[in-house]
Structures are given as structure tokens and as C-alpha cells.
Design goal:
This is SET domain-containing protein. Residues 100-273 form the SET domain. This protein is α+β, with helices and mostly antiparallel strands and 277 residues long. It has 6 helices and 11 strands. The chain has helices at 27-44, 50-53, 58-68, 90-98, 144-147, 168-180, and strands spanning 100-106, 114-121, 128-132, 134-137, 153-155, 161-163, 209-210, 219-225, 240-242, 252-258, 269-270. The chain has a 4-stranded mixed beta sheet with strand order 5-6-4-9, covered by helices on one side. The protein has a 3-stranded antiparallel beta sheet with strand order 3-10-8, with helices on one face. The protein has a two-stranded antiparallel ribbon with strand order 1-2.
Amino acid sequence: MRVKMMQPLKKTVRYVPEESKDKVISDEDVLGTLLKVFQALFINDFNKQSDILTMLPETVKSKYHDLLSVQHPRVKLLEYRHQQQNIFKPEEILYKTLGFSVARATSSLISAGKGVFVTRGLVPKGAVVAMYPGTVYQKYEPIFFQSIGNPFIFRCLDGVLVDGNDKGISKVVYRSCNGRDRLGPLKMSDSTWLTSEICNPLAVGQYVNNCSNDRAANVCYQEFDVPAVFPIELKQYLPNIAYSCDKQSPLRCVILVALRDIKQGEELFSNYYTIVS
């Protein structure tokens, strides 16, 4: 996990009491939020999803046609149109869906580089506010070269590692795995977090800075395994991919949950830092 080496901040090992089981909110709540956001992104980009829709069962196709004809309380996408001017930006979809948006910007901390800010709206306590993207490694898989000088390695409680570096060999590995796992036009993960044009606006969690004595943590990390029933057409927005082809283990994702209400303009700060040498 990323640690700002230039900051005189105390580094702590990520620790979660056993009784808390690392769950601030339930897996059901996490899944519900991701499905809500991803579905809104899918509908917003509906005119580009024709190749994907042709491969889906009629029951799935009809679900999206039905959704397009019904007004969502927050996502006001009332009908399917092809005009590009009717396409919202991902951060706008996030705001219309969850009531807030987040984005990377220069951190308020000196020499901290990039940080993540609430750019619009209010993040309520207990909300999923971001995701930690990257290649997911089981603890027995090789990650030596990727980890050299890499401050973006996140270690889960069970030893699973997530490499959230968007540069160098880490970037090459992620893109390679992303291409490997495609099923025709169906993408099993999102690689746009490696670029400046992010499709999933939640995929900025690797840039959340460490808390300090005068900047208390307002978000925390929570691990989430993607269930087998996750809609295949929405996997294109998952910013994580398994290094191994082994399909026995569910895909591990790490999400960031708000510890309190976070207002517009505030920077996100986390805790529970682990350094992988």
C-alpha cells in the first residue's frame, strides 16, 4: 500500500481486530453500490455496448431496455439515444447515482503528490467512496520485480496482494492480463484506470494519502470478493484482475468506505498501512 516516504508520518501495519472481520459495511451493501454505479455507467454508454448485448441472453437484454424506459430516481437517463452530446462523463454518472463524485488532484499535503478529493456533493458515512485498482496476486505468486521500489502494493489480511501501480512493469502486467481474459467483445476488467480517461470513476483509491497527526483518516479499506453471480456485462468496470488464470478463487477487490460524512472539497485520508518489501 502506498506510503508517502517524504512525509514525517508514523507508518503502521494494517491491523483489524478479529471481531470486526474487516467489515465496516456488509458485502451486500458493497455489491449493491457497485451494481448501481456500474449499471448506470453501462446504460450511459449504451450506444457503444451493441457488440456486448448481442452475446447476452434475452432476459439480460430486456432488463436494459426496460431500465431505459423507466426514470431512475437519481440517474435521469430516460431513453436510449445515439447522439454523443447525451453521454454523461463518468464522474457525472457517479454524482447522479450516489450523490457525490471524487477525483485525483494535487494533494493538500506538502510533497505528497496526487491525492483524492470529493469534488461534488456529500459522501455519507458508510458509503463506498472509491476502489483500489490493480493486479491481484495470491501470496504464493511471483511479484518480486513488480514490487521493487513500488509504493502501491496493498496487502490484504490473508496475504493476497494488489498492485495498484499505473506505471512500469505493473502497467504492462495488468494490460497483459486484461487482454488475456477477454471473451470476444466482453471485457472481464477495466484497464482505463491506467490512463487519464477513467471509465470507472471510483477507481482512484491507490492515490488516497496516509493520515497524519493533524489529518485524521476519513476512509478505511475493506476487502470484497466478487461473487460468481456478478453480471458478466458489468465486469468491464471492475478495476482489478487476477494475475493467475486459476478461476477457483473469487476476484479480490478492495474498496474504501467513508468513516464519517465527507464534504465537498475535502481530501480523502486512509489508515492501516502495510509496506511490502
